Amino acid sequence: MKQLILDISPPQSPSLANFIAGHNVELLQMLYTLAASGLQERFVYVWGETGSGKSHLLKAFLQSMSVNQRDVIYINAGMHQVIDPEALENAVVTVDDVELLDEQQQIALFNLYNRMREGQGVLLVSGHCAPAQLTLRQDLVTRLGWGLIYQIHALSDVEKIQALKTHSQERGFELSQEVAEYLLRHWRRDMPSLLAMLDSLDRFSLETKRPITIPLLKQLLQPANAA
Question: What is the DSSP letter of 91?
Fold first, then answer.
């Protein structure tokens, strides 16, 4: 059992390439263009429900920008990190879960917006709702609405299953509808975790020389869910 737990693949590192766009094609293309310095707009706000992929996109965008030799920083608002406007005015900054900023962080982010307007920085911010609905300082809410605003649409179950089937075909096997639905019901529902489990299932099938069925998936999930 312990060996099975060790065999569970970790999710891939977030990248723009492995983000499954669904209804977010325009947003994804914009981030590709921005990462290639193809946009004059340097302020972007994205919002969506939990599990829609906000954190993935923010980290993926930083990964793309770091390749371009830019200074990058990821700020998780819930971790109460210090935001230094002077040090970050020319950096690429992402702020995740902006609604969790405390009072001092809100003031610092407001000042960072103002300094970045005169500098060369890029700011990508995520929240759980549109800027106008945030219960933050009004001057900061105004700044959050300055640039491009996109809603991130979470994948439906049908889209997730199709993405899993496409991934399985790329790995050289067919994933049945029944196994895909069982995986959705009994494992984490974010796509990186689902794809990582599918990779583990494929490897486990090859190692045990057994077909990919619900009983095989159950055997793999049992120690993983207990971990």
Answer: S
Please report, in tens digits, the pLDDT of each residue of the chain (227 residues total): 434 443 556 667 889 998 999 999 999 999 999 998 867 899 999 999 988 999 999 999 999 998 877 899 999 999 989 999 999 999 999 999 999 999 999 999 999 999 999 989 999 999 999 999 999 999 999 999 989 999 999 999 999 999 999 999 988 999 999 999 999 999 998 888 899 999 999 999 999 999 999 999 999 998 767 65
Token representation of residue 186 = 């009994």
Pick the CATH number of 22-151 from 3.40.50.620, 3.90.1150.10, 3.80.30.20, 3.40.50.300: 3.40.50.300
DSSP 1-42: -HHHHHTSPPPPPP-STT---TT-HHHHHHHHHHHTT--S--
* Distance in angstroms (rounded) separating the CA atoms of residues 99 and 79: 12
User: Exposure of 32 by Cβ count < 10 A (0-12 exposed, 13-18 middle, 19+ buried)?
Assistant: middle
Q: Where are the domains of the chain?
A: 22-151, 157-221
